């Protein structure tokens, strides 16, 4: 084999590998994109306390721990959605966080939104969806099996470190 043939084979292999990496999210829809971080749910927070049920009309913070799986630079996009039974989910908040990560690095990421409706028969729960560089890395589809947030209209007051209401 002459060097021109070896070079041509090498170029073809590089093109095939690049195409595979770019098409991997479409070939394997559940697979994270190359360089995507992993993440851990740290909770929903309201009134400086972790909650499973929040109060409508008051800010709620979603807290995530992001862990670098490689040296990568990208944008973590967080969508907070409202699950409406028998209708499409509604995006109620979007936040983008530019991140530069190295392998094993841990970063806390927060986003805050204010729920506008209580959960009942019209709204099942609020939940989040994650993207890394515009490719989905977490898309929960089954209610009750995701990190959902319930919301109530009950008035809650916070006095001296204790909730009342």
Overview of the molecule:
15% of the residues lie in helices and 46% in strands. The radius of gyration is 21 Å and the shape is elongated. It has two domains: 1-31; 33-164, Coagulation Factor XIII, Chain A, domain 1. The chain has one helix and twelve strands. It starts with a helix and ends with a strand. The strands form four sheets. A four-stranded antiparallel β-sheet has the order 2-1-4-7, with no helix packed on it. With 165 residues, the protein is of the alpha+beta class.
List the main descriptive attributes of the protein structure presented here.
single chain, Coagulation Factor XIII, Chain A, domain 1, four-stranded antiparallel beta sheet, 1 helix, 12 strands
Task: Summarize the entry for a quick read.
By secondary structure, the chain is α+β, with helices and mostly antiparallel strands. It is 15% helix and 46% strand. It has two domains: 1-31; 33-164, abc- transporter (atp binding component) like domain (Coagulation Factor XIII, Chain A, domain 1).
